[in-house]
Design a protein that fits this description.
28% of the residues lie in helices and 23% in strands. It contains two helices and five strands; from the N terminus they run E-E-H-E-H-E-E. The chain has helices at 25-37, 51-61, and strands at residues 2-4, 9-11, 43-47, 65-69, 76-79. Strands 1-2-3-5-4 form a five-stranded mixed beta sheet, with helices on one face. A hairpin with a 6-residue loop joins strand 4 (65-69) and strand 5. The termini are far apart.
């Protein structure tokens, strides 16, 4: 699920069915998403408890953890927003 507005380009939901994981589909979906959103740095939030699942994608695409939030159902890390966390 993607959100494209004047003020925001965001990947809201990113899910690959388990039987299709680790077959390269995520790359195709992400690159199509980037094209639709018109950016190579879309905003994306990932629940802290699922960061390990996304670590390969995060590293491959150079997503930068910029904020954390508790606004949603569980603590989440926000990637690619203008504010960058200090390490």
């Amino acid at each position: 699920m993607l959100k494209k507005s004047e003020n925001e380009s965001k990947i809201c939901t990113f899910l690959i069915n388990e039987e299709y994981r680790k077959k390269g589909y995520s790359k195709f979906i992400l690159e199509d998403s980037y094209e639709y959103l018109g950016t190579e740095r879309p905003l994306i939030t990932i629940p802290e408890k699922r960061l390990d699942e996304f670590s390969k994608i995060i590293d491959s695409y150079g997503w930068v953890a910029s904020e954390t939030t508790n606004e949603y159902y569980s603590p989440e890390v926000i990637f690619n927003s203008p504010k960058v966390l200090k390490k």
